[in-house]
Amino acid sequence: MTSNISWLLLLTSFVGADDGSKLVKVLIFSRHNVRSPLSDVHESYSSKPWPTWPNEFGTLTPRGWLLERIMAKYISLWLQQVHFPVDCSTNVDIYTNNIERTISSGYAFVEGAFPQCGFPVRYDSGSTIDPIFSYSSRNLTPEYEEGVQRYLKNKLLEIDLRESLELMQDIVDVKNSPKCKEEGVCDLMSWGHTISIVPDKEPLLHGPIAISNKLVDTFLMQYYDGFDMKDVAWGLITNETEWKMLLDINKNYHDIIFNDTNIARDLSLSLVKLLKKYLLEDDVKFRCLVGHDANVFTITRLLNFTTYELLGQNEKTPIGGKIVFQKWYDGNTDRHLLKIEYVYASFKQLRDMEELSLENPPMRVTLEMEGCSIDSDGFCMWNDFVQILEAI
């Protein structure tokens, strides 16, 4: 109890501007932080030696823990700056998906944001993935599947990733890979794509874009995890333009799979309804949910976020990035307002593991939803937001 009181006093002691506005609730949806590759399936596409990782596939790396703690510490400083007192015993909830990288990210967040509190992270202890965070297909009526297949095939026709795939092909040297020698797959250009939609499984794209996305993910995690640059894609990504070209594969892969309203509704309706409950119906002042990039894609699609650009980043859903829903009360007009920001570390901040602070903050981009127009300060009317949630 003493530690909770001391932390509360620390938060309330910060002096900031008093303009008649007051932050009354914060809900964060966060992507987990830096992890090792999800599997070794990518390794057969190159005969070059792959660097080893210090941890098991798909788990948070030690550096990922530190990066999450750094971001969380910044969040706590921001809470102090805006006079947002938090009583850890009653007004904080950290809820994560039930796999290692999200649970560990949750505990790292607690360690950074609320070091005096030491409360447990909440997650479903069952053996299967928490359905709230699952991005598996649920609605598999023939009409739905036919519509999704048609949408995905049309999306594939709209994109042109030839230059990006050629660059990836050159980096991994597919023609000399085990995949080429053993299975005859000797390039990332000439073979086609297929799409699978299976009950209780993530919608999957198969083919060059999907394989290249796994390779991009591996190189990106190497970069974020501080690997020597000669070991990040064997030193063959030489400038920011090439990073952007490769990450176009990542962006388009997720856009193909998740950027359709029907797919987003199928995959994330339970999650969005839970966010609605947390934002509208309960009294917990600060919540942080930790999930995955797929969750971020489907949340922003289902809630009709307008197109946004993340400065200083080449990812659309940066590792460790956080969508921060803020409910404010404006005492001057006696009304509640909403502000949503994407708070994330830049490409450089992640690579250099920079200490974040009010003087050296992470990137913050204000987001907007259709039907909830923002003013010059990034606020929209809370009642408009409520109408959007009620219509989901």
Automatic annotation (TrEMBL):
<keyword id="KW-0732">Signal</keyword>
<dbReference type="InterPro" id="IPR029033">
    <property type="entry name" value="His_PPase_superfam"/>
</dbReference>
<feature type="signal peptide">
    <location>
        <begin position="1"/>
        <end position="17"/>
    </location>
</feature>
<dbReference type="GO" id="GO:0016791">
    <property type="term" value="F:phosphatase activity"/>
</dbReference>
<protein>
    <submittedName>
        <fullName>Glucose-1-phosphatase</fullName>
    </submittedName>
</protein>
